[in-house]
Specification:
Number of domains: 1
Order of helices and strands: EEEHEHHEEH
CATH superfamily: Glutaredoxin
Structural class: alpha+beta
CATH topology: Glutaredoxin
Shape: globular
Number of strands: 6
Strand content: 15-25%
Number of helices: 4
Helix content: 25-40%
CATH class: Alpha Beta
Length: 165
């Protein structure tokens, strides 16, 4: 797959300020659609541990809250940020709430899920906490479903391999 257009996008952080994803160029990215009231919400803890373990090596975890599955992310951005900080000590970047499917899908998730822009790992988001792994060139090199926890050996191996590229 060629250079991703993902790094060309600009997104809003949960604080409201815009940020060019290009800021993360040269980093390995794990992009995750997150929710506060989901059976998988406890994965925030594992994501934070993964971030602490590999951030110095170049890993960035980007969390994108979405309310697209059974209203499991009903809060506004301030409530989501507070929930993540207080309950899980989240320090990785969280972004403003977006849509990861449907007519209002975010341009980021359109690129991630579209089979034409992402033939190897495209396809609809099935639930909260789907994970996309991008290498340092911004290319999608892995996808993990909601049931794949952040401490899963396959996920850790893929992250480590991408970090060593």
């Amino acid at each position: 797959m060629g250079k991703s257009k993902i790094l060309d996008l600009e997104m809003k952080l949960i604080s409201g300020e815009s940020i060019a994803l290009e800021k993360f160029a040269g980093k390995v990215l794990l992009i995750v659609n997150v929710a506060s009231k989901c059976g998988f919400t406890k994965q925030y803890d594992g994501l934070q541990k993964l971030y602490e373990r590999y951030q110095a090596d170049g890993l960035e975890i980007l969390g994108f809250p979405a309310n697209d599955f059974l209203s499991q992310e009903p809060g506004d951005n301030a409530e989501i940020a507070k929930f993540c900080r207080i309950n899980f000590g989240v320090t990785f970047p969280l972004f403003a709430k977006i849509h990861v499917k449907g007519k209002k899908i975010s341009p980021l998730y359109k690129l991630l899920t579209d089979k034409s822009s992402n033939p190897d790992y495209g396809g609809k988001i099935t639930w909260n906490f789907n994970k996309f792994l991008l290498n340092r060139q911004g290319e999608i090199v892995g996808r993990f479903n909601s049931r794949t926890t952040p401490d899963d050996e396959k996920l850790i191996s893929a992250v480590e391999a991408a970090l060593q590229e």
